[in-house]
Small ribosomal subunit biogenesis GTPase RsgA
Amino acid sequence: MSSHTTAQPSALPFSARVLTPADYGWDTERERSFAPSRADGLVPGRVVRAERGRCDVVGETGPVRASAPPSSAGDRLTPCTGDWVALRPAGATTSATVVDVLERRTAVVRAASSRTSQAQVLAANVDTVAVAVSLADPLRLGRIERMLALAWESGATPAVVLTKADRCADPASAAAEVATAAPGAELLVTSATTGEGLDVLTAVLTGTVVLLGPSGAGKSTLGNRLLGEDLLATGAVRDSDGKGRHTTAWRELLPLPHGGVLIDTPGLRSVGLHDAGEGLEQTFADITELADDCRFTDCAHATEPGCAVLAAVEDGHLTRRRLDSYHRLQRENAHAAARTDARLRAELERPMKQLTRQARALRRSSHFKA
């Protein structure tokens, strides 16, 4: 086996050496599958920051600024932060070029902000998704459920990180409330100010870690604690509305001193779902489990007799808020899918057309009676 497959990260501090793909997670399996590309003169690298048409890549000789021309056929993936790519090294008169994006093992994907049928990949090849939630602000369980749906759908392991515990009167009570919206996800209470929970956090967040959450949730401050130095810009939260300033302007990949890498992301103002059916099942695993006992296999958990989910709401085992959130996110996901699926779109539009026809018929009937 070539020396490329056995390369391990050096024990020297990051600041004292040139970083290579081994420091960013390049492994034996990827090296084995990359053999044909090596035979064509290509080398592997990982995208640490992506821009339109260009990206910063960590290659075998260190950081490289590479061009990433779009495919004329549109069949090539656009490189994003966390991607592994095949690079053609720079020549005497040419710059380094991204030739191909390697298969993504996982990807955090949301609907594009334009509300089109397109999707936006926030981070690729992620092992752990840390959803940051500030305990200094009122809890928004629906937002947490939305973030977790993206996290579960990505194929990575989600964790909910409650930040700013030092600014919360009762962190334990808040954590218990959040736990009702995050079945199956690791839940951690932390404070970057006092250091509470950071040792546990370091142990839980392994591999490639991406921080997700709104501005002001404390992602960058938390990231700096994990990095061991202030590499990420942070800003104060506005007193007027409690919202944070967008101090992170792009997604960037940084190596962690204890192993693994970190992707800090800008605050997410909105998170639209895109083909997140499995993620929703995981996020609402309690409802999915209850649904197994419904009388009808296609129960919508709305008004059907023998609905185990509605029964759980009635007896207090499930909150109406959580069921409403489940319905809302399911509808959103269905409409997002319909934007790319003509047949499904027609199915969704059919009930509305039927209601319109019924309303017209009623108006005509009323007119004739008058």
